[in-house]
Specification:
The complex is a heterodimer of chains A (384) and B (300). Chain A contains 13 helices and 17 strands. Chain A is of the alpha/beta class. In chain A, strand 11, helix 9 and strand 12 form a beta-alpha-beta unit. The termini of chain A are far apart. By secondary structure, chain B is an all-alpha fold. Chain B has two domains: 257 residues, ABC transporter involved in vitamin B12 uptake, BtuC, CATH 1.10.3470; 30 residues. Classes of the chains: A alpha/beta (384), B mainly alpha (300). At the A-B interface, helix 1, helix 3, helix 5 and helix 7 of A face helix 1, helix 4, helix 8, helix 10 and helix 11 of B.
C-alpha cells in the first residue's frame, strides 16, 4: 500500500506541475518546440538556447513595447523528439495551456505541417526555422494564415544548386545520391533534378539509400561507372561524411555538392579530406560581418559554437519582435497580421515576407566551399 | 476542456484501437508482431485516398482502411503463419519496414515528404464510439468458441492441433482481426493529424504498441485499455521533468514490469462481475480479520 501511495502522490504532483502557471500581466509568453532529444537534438538545443539568450538580452534592454505598453518576453520550450505526433501534442499544450501568443520552430517540415489546423483554431502564429518544404506555408495554392517561415524553400535551394553546378562550375553530367526515406532529401533531389535538366544538363545516375545505412559503395560504384562531372548529395552531414569517404576510397575524384543539411562542425571532423573542395548551398555566409556578433555572444554564453539553426531562429526572433512592435494588441491574431508585412534586415539577409506565400521572398542563398577544413564563402547566388 | 487534454485523450483512444487488435494477436493467440505500424500505415493511406481523392464520407474511409489492412494481413498470413515462433515475429518486422519503404518511394501519395491536407474528420466522439465498439466486439470474440480456440493455440499449439483445432485458421483469424483494428486506428490517426508521413509508422511505433500490450497485461482486454491510456498520458505528464522525460518514462515502464511481471492486469479482467467479486473478497477478508481480532481478544 505504501508504494502505491507514493506512486499516486508522484502522479498528482506531476499533474499539478504540468497544469500550473498563471499569466502575468506584463509578460508575453512565446513558445518554442523542436527536438531536444533524438538524432536532431544538436539543432534543437542550439535553437532553444539562442531563443533564451535573445529573450534575456531583450528583457535586460527594457523589453518590448506593444501598443504603448512595455512587456518582457518569456520562452516556453518543449521537446517533441522530432516526432510529428508529439509536435501536435506540444502545440496544443502551448496554445491552450501556456497561452503563448506565438511559436518559434520547428526545424523539420514534417513537424511544421500537421500543426497548421491547431494554430488556426487557436489563432497563434508560428515561425518555422529551417522547414524548407513549400507545403509548410502553402497548401493547394492557399496560404495557411498562421504559418510563417524565415528560410528559403526547397524549390529555390534546388534551383540554386542546379544553377551553380551548371553555370558556374560548368557541370553537364550530374549524378544524384539521396536518402529515399527522408522528406527533406527527397524534396531537394526532385528540385535539383528538375532544374538541372531544364538548364540542359543530364542526370546520368539517380541512386538512393535509406536512413541508417552506413555502406554506400554499391550506389557509389554505379555512379562511378557513369563518370559524372558532379555528385549531388542532398542529405545530412553524418551520411555525407560517410559516403564522401567511401567515394574517395573507390577512387572517385568528382566534386560533390549538397544543401543546408551539410554545415556542421562534425562534417569536417568526420569527412576530413574527403569533403575538401566540395560545395554546398547555405542560408548564410559564416564569415559575414553581420553574423559575427551573434556568433561571439553565443560562444561566450554557452561555450560552444552555434549551429546553422541558431542563425535562423535568431532571425525568427527578430521577425517576432518587429511584428510585436507593430501589432495593435499583444495577441496571436494581431501578431500574425503584423508578420504578414514583415520587411526587416536579419543576420541571414533581407526578410520580406510575402502575404501570398508567407515565405521570405528574394532571400539570397550563399554558396560555401570547403577549403582546408574551413567553410569558405564563395558568393551569394540567386536562382534565375 | 483544453485542446491539449482533448488531444491526448483522442490519441489515447486511437492508440487503444490499435492496441486492442494487437492484444488479440499477442495476448490471446500468442503471436508477437513488430509490424503493426505497417497495418496502421495501410489503413491511414487507404482512408486518406477515400476521403481526400474520392471525397467519400469518413465512415467509408474507415471501412476501407479496415478492409485494406485485413486484406494485406491475409496475404502476409498466408505466407508466414506457417512459420513457428520467432520466425513469424521477424517476418512481421520485415513486413512493417517494407510497407514504410514502399510508401517512401511512392511519389503519388507524397513519398517520404508526406501527405498534407487530409480533412480533420476525427473527433473525440467518433473515437469514443469506435473504442466502445472495438472493446465490445473483442470481448465477445475472446469469450466465444473461436476465442477459446485461440487461447488453446497460445497455450499449447500441438495439443490444440491434436484436439482437432485448425491452428492455422485461428492464427489467421487473430491476425486478420488485429490488422483490421490497426487499419482503423491508422485511419483515425491520419484524419486527426491531417497529415501522414511514412516516418510516423516506423518500427518505433510497432514496438510502442507491443510495449503497451505487454505493459497492460497479456490476455487482458481491460489491461490493454488501461495500458493504452496510461502510456499515452505518461510522456505528456512527464514534461514536468524536462529533458529527463524519456529516461523517467523508460524507468517507469521497467519498474512496473519488475513489480508486476504479468503487466498491469495480466490474466485479470475488469468486468462488472470481477469488480463485484473483488469487493466480495475484500468484505470477506475484512470480516475474517474482525473475527480473528475478536478471537484474539477473547483469547486474552
Amino acid at each position: 500500500m505504501r508504494v502505491r501511495n507514493i506512486v499516486a502522490a508522484i502522479l498528482v504532483a506531476l499533474v499539478l506541475i504540468s497544469c500550473g502557471g498563471a499569466q502575468k500581466a506584463d509578460v508575453i509568453k512565446v513558445g518554442w518546440f523542436g527536438a531536444l532529444t533524438g538524432d536532431q537534438a544538436v539543432w534543437g538545443n542550439n535553437e532553444f538556447n539562442t531563443v533564451k539568450m535573445l529573450f534575456e538580452e531583450i528583457n535586460a534592454a527594457g523589453g518590448v513595447t506593444v501598443a504603448g505598453k512595455v512587456y518582457t518576453l518569456e520562452a516556453v520550450g518543449y521537446d517533441n523528439k522530432g516526432d510529428a505526433q508529439e509536435a501536435v501534442n506540444v502545440v496544443r499544450r502551448l496554445t491552450s495551456q501556456d497561452k503563448v501568443i506565438a511559436i518559434l520552430g520547428p526545424n523539420a517540415s514534417g513537424n511544421a505541417i500537421p500543426i497548421a489546423p491547431i494554430l488556426e483554431s487557436a489563432k497563434v502564429p508560428d515561425i518555422a526555422t529551417v522547414a524548407t518544404n513549400p507545403k509548410v506555408t502553402v497548401l493547394d495554392g492557399k496560404v495557411k494564415p498562421y504559418n510563417f517561415r524565415v528560410c528559403f524553400i526547397d524549390p529555390y535551394q534546388g534551383a540554386v544548386a542546379a544553377g551553380y553546378a551548371y553555370e558556374v562550375l560548368g557541370s553537364r553530367k550530374a549524378a544524384v545520391l539521396y536518402d529515399v526515406s527522408d522528406d527533406y532529401s527527397q524534396g531537394l533531389r526532385q528540385f535539383f533534378v528538375e532544374n538541372f535538366k531544364k538548364l540542359g544538363g543530364e542526370i546520368v545516375a539517380d541512386e538512393s539509400f535509406k536512413s541508417g545505412d552506413v555502406d554506400f559503395r554499391p550506389q557509389l560504384s554505379k555512379i562511378k561507372s557513369q563518370n559524372p562531372d558532379i555528385i549531388f548529395m542532398p542529405y545530412f552531414f553524418k551520411e555525407v561524411a560517410l559516403s564522401a569517404n567511401q567515394a574517395r576510397e573507390l577512387g572517385m575524384t568528382q566534386v560533390m555538392m549538397g544543401g543546408d543539411g551539410w554545415p556542421s562542425e562534425q562534417l569536417i571532423s568526420m569527412g576530413g579530406a574527403a569533403v575538401e573542395g566540395c560545395y554546398f548551398v547555405n542560408h548564410l555566409d559564416y564569415d559575414d560581418p553581420d553574423v559575427a556578433d551573434y556568433k561571439a555572444r553565443y560562444l561566450k554564453k554557452y561555450g560552444i559554437e552555434t549551429e546553422l539553426n541558431g542563425y535562423l531562429v535568431h532571425d525568427a526572433v527578430l521577425m517576432l519582435v518587429d511584428a510585436l512592435k507593430r501589432a495593435d494588441k499583444p495577441d496571436g491574431e494581431s501578431v500574425a497580421k503584423a508578420l504578414e508585412s514583415t520587411n526587416i534586415k536579419g543576420i541571414t539577409g533581407k526578410i520580406a515576407i510575402s502575404p501570398e506565400t508567407h515565405n521570405p521572398e528574394g532571400k539570397d542563398a550563399a554558396i560555401i566551399k570547403i577549403i582546408g577544413g574551413k567553410y569558405k564563402f564563395q558568393q551569394k547566388y540567386a536562382a534565375k | 476542456m483544453s485542446s491539449y487534454l482533448e488531444g491526448i485523450i483522442m490519441l489515447s483512444g486511437i492508440n487503444l484501437i490499435a492496441v486492442l487488435g494487437l492484444s488479440l494477436l499477442t495476448g490471446f493467440a500468442g503471436l508477437f508482431s513488430f509490424g503493426h505500424a505497417g497495418f496502421m500505415a495501410i489503413g491511414a493511406y487507404s482512408a486518406a485516398i477515400c476521403t481526400t481523392i474520392f471525397k467519400l464520407p469518413f465512415f467509408v474511409g474507415i471501412a476501407a482502411a479496415a478492409a485494406a489492412a485485413a486484406g494485406a494481413s491475409w496475404l502476409i498470413g498466408r505466407a508466414t503463419l506457417r512459420l513457428k515462433g520467432d520466425y513469424f515475429c521477424i517476418a512481421t518486422l520485415g513486413f512493417g519496414e517494407a510497407i514504410r519503404l514502399i510508401l517512401d518511394n511512392f511519389q503519388g501519395l507524397g513519398g517520404a515528404r508526406g501527405w498534407p491536407g487530409i480533412p480533420p474528420h476525427t473527433t473525440l466522439v467518433n473515437i469514443l464510439i469506435l473504442d466502445v465498439i472495438g472493446v465490445v466486439l473483442l470481448a465477445n470474440l475472446v469469450r466465444s468458441r473461436h476465442g477459446r480456440n485461440m487461447i488453446a493455440v497460445r497455450e499449447e499449439e500441438l495439443a490444440a492441433q491434436v484436439a482437432g483445432i485448425n491452428t492455422f485458421k485461428y492464427k489467421m483469424l487473430a491476425l486478420v482481426v488485429s490488422a483490421a483494428y490497426a487499419g482503423v486506428a491508422g485511419a483515425l490517426l491520419g484524419h486527426y493529424m491531417t497529415f501522414i508521413q511514412p516516418k510516423m509508422f516506423s518500427m518505433v511505433k510497432s514496438t510502442e504498441l507491443t510495449i503497451i500490450v505487454i505493459f497492460g497485461g497479456l490476455g487482458s482486454i481491460s489491461g490493454s485499455v488501461l495500458g493504452a491510456v496510461v502510456l499515452t498520458f505518461l510522456p505528456e505528464l512527464l514534461r514536468a521533468v524536462d529533458k529527463w522525460r524519456l529516461v523517467v518514462y523508460g524507468l517507469a515502464v521497467i519498474g512496473i514490469m519488475i513489480g508486476r511481471p504479468r503487466g498491469l492486469m495480466g490474466g485479470f479482467e475488469l468486468t462488472p462481475k470481477s469488480v463485484r467479486a473483488h469487493f466480495a473478497r475484500l468484505r470477506e477478508a475484512k470480516a475474517a480479520r474482525a473475527d480473528q481480532a475478536a478471537e484474539e481478544k477473547g483469547g486474552l
